[in-house]
Amino acid sequence: MKLEVADVREFWNANPCQSHLSQAPERRRYFEEISKKRYGGREWHVPKVANFSALRGQEVLEIGCSIATDGLEFAKAGAKYTGVDLTPRSIEMAEERFALFDVSGTFVATNAEAPLPFPDASFDHVYSFGVIHHSPAPEKIVREIHRVLRKGGTFTVMLYNRTSINYYIEIMFLRKIFRMCLLPKPMPAIIAAITGFDRQTLEGHRDMMLQKRGMTKQEWISMNTDGPFCPLADVYNHREATALFKDFANVRQEVWEFNSDHWSFLGKLIPLKLERWIGRRWGWHRMIYGKKP
Ligand SMILES: C[S@@+](CC[C@H](N)C(=O)[O-])C[C@H]1O[C@@H](n2cnc3c(N)ncnc32)[C@H](O)[C@@H]1O
Q1: Total of domains in the chain
Q2: What is the CATH number of the domain that holds 246?
Q3: How many Å lie between the centroid of ligand 1 and the Cα of residue 181?
Q4: Which of 101, 160, 162, 252 is the most exposed place for a label (fewest CB within 10 A)?
């Protein structure tokens, strides 16, 4: 069955990205805790790759801004920031966040596959972190990036990396071998107690496996990236990402992020330096940079 963008919208509207990272009742503190956890944890590399301060004074468009965690950093660093997202709920939270921190920005709830509501050549930089691989029509979003960028304008995009430990070893090998262990009813609780993995996520995986016998490869990848109910996610190697951004110049790629939490107690034995070294070789985040010729 072909996936529609409405399925993607429904999932992310119900689960604004990383909105669960804080439970603080006070709203300013709530957003501060989310930023702290993002940049202080496994996504410590985001400020490096996004290079917020380099965009001071420039017109920046973020595609898939969600609750504007990175958006706030662009705006605080002096960029003229616009964020778009498929989901009204994320846009509401992004607007609330900007108001609370007294920074200005423009937000639009829209599908970036459809023509974006901006004229040609209206931005200096387009940023999109972990978004395009959730789209049923990624090439349409990339075409829009090209259209709205000014000549010489730059982009920074993160796509999930196929040539990663997460894809080949975890998703396509270990999780496939061990998935049957989840089927007996008490197993999610037992595995959660032994490994420290989130019990609800494991229960979700069990439910999905009971519902969907004979899953496609695409469905398997999707349910093993952003939780069991994520309707769509894809992965890209160097060649696939190069092909997607073929109309741009100076395209450069690098990889980041190895999530040692996936490896339970074994992960805790890995020194931080080694974790980061692994991430730079076989990490999950494929960063792509380039410019409009
Ligand atoms: C994994 S989250 C990433 C959010 C944010 N960039 C971050 O790093 O926290 C993916 C986001 O992309 C948005 N998204 C997915 N498809 C989209 C589309 N076609 N147009 C606009 N936004 C989209 C989702 O609504 C969701 O907020």
Answers
A1: 2
A2: 3.40.50.150
A3: 32
A4: 252
